[in-house]
Amino acid sequence: MKGVMMKNYTTMNNQQGAALIVGMIVLLVMTLLGVSTMSSMTTELRIANNSQTHNKAFQIAASGLNAALDDASAVDTGVSTAQTFNYPVADVTDLSKSTVAITYAACLLTPDGYSLSQDVTMKGLVHDFRSTAQVINASNQVIGTVTHVNGVQTIRPGCPTGAVAK
Q1: DSSP 21-90
Q2: Is pTM beyond 0.70 here?
Q3: Which residues of the chain have pLDDT under 50?
């Protein structure tokens, strides 16, 4: 009996720790998977945040453009120089803004097909509306900028001072 106990006791002393090594390897693999998943989630969160900021800036630029189109003084038909307008856009932080630069592009003959095309005194004024919006965070840092461009043609008698009809 004493020999059997000795043998069992000796077997326990001869273990080499294989279970400990396998357990450590499994823990290492699980840790690497966890770190990789966290890194991937952080990147996806940044992508989603950038997309949201871009969409917000685009909507602010479009709002500024619409405000400029609704503003009768935005297209001063007697001026052939660039004009700039600031249109504050209400958002959650009340910091974002849209700046609309309106540039006179050309004075064209009224296109065929318009009811006024028979009147040679009527001209088509072309203006480029360039609305630049900035998304500003609570720390007053610009986190997104978008430019939205639109061309507008208005019909009026004659060209602005100094402009030549094309």
Answers
A1: HHHHHHHHHHHHHHHHHHHHHHHHHHHHHHHHHHHHHHHHHHHHHHHHHH-GGGS-TT--S-EEEEEE--
A2: no
A3: none
